[in-house]
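Technical annex, item 7. During the second reporting period the consortium partners agreed on a shared format for inverse folding records so that results from different sites could be compared directly. Each record opens with the tokenized structure and is followed by the designed sequence. A conforming record, contributed by the partner at site C, is shown below for reference.
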């Protein structure tokens, strides 16, 4: 369970390593939600989706080469297998999320970044304001302790081999890219409230 709170989403203008589409940095309020402690492994994905068991050296690696549609199909299938109500349904040719369902789902972009930052920076009761570049602060020299990236790895690595962030989540700063529920849209400086439910 991750606590709800407020954080600064995106990168500050002073961050010369940030991409243009990561700005402007703006305040976002996120409700409490749950998130797996590691990316979905090949072993779990193949088991749930009835695919052949992976080799031992790949079983604990994060699953790769899956589309966004594959990811939401996995969430729905896992939900059904564990007796939860699936979150995703297709209506009028579009996939929609039922935010009231208790099944597994992808995080929103805001939820993902909030979870990655893990309350880094200022924190107070009912709030988790984050402004640092990484979950562990602003010093890139510590990145090797928390992440696999091009500077220290040439391939996908087994999950949870680096240090977790403050909320116990592994591989949030590297290893593989991860899917989010919502599509990218430009940022604004207006405060946002997450999440707006889809309607059925």
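Designed sequence (site C submission):
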């Amino acid at each position: 369970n991750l606590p709800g709170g407020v954080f600064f989403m995106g990168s500050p203008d002073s961050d010369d390593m940030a991409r243009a589409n990561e700005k402007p940095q703006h305040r976002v309020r996120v409700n409490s939600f749950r998130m797996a402690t590691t990316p979905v492994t090949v072993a779990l994905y193949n088991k749930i989706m009835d695919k052949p068991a992976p080799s031992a050296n790949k079983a604990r690696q994060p699953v790769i080469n899956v589309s966004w549609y594959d990811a939401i199909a996995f969430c729905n299938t896992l939900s059904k297998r564990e007796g939860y109500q699936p979150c995703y349904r297709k209506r009028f040719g579009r996939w929609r999320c039922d935010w009231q369902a208790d099944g597994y789902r992808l995080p929103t972009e805001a939820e993902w970044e909030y979870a990655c930052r893990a309350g880094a920076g200022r924190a107070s009761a009912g709030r988790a304001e984050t402004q640092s570049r990484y979950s562990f602060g602003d010093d890139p020299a510590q990145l090797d302790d928390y992440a696999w990236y091009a500077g220290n790895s040439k391939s996908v690595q087994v999950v949870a081999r680096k240090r977790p962030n403050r909320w116990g989540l592994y591989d949030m700063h590297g290893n593989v890219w991860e899917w989010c529920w919502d599509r990218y849209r430009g940022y604004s400086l207006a405060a946002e409230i997450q999440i707006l439910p889809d309607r059925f």
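Confidence is low (pLDDT under 50) at residues 122-126. The longest helix spans residues 68-81. All partners now use this format for quarterly exchanges.
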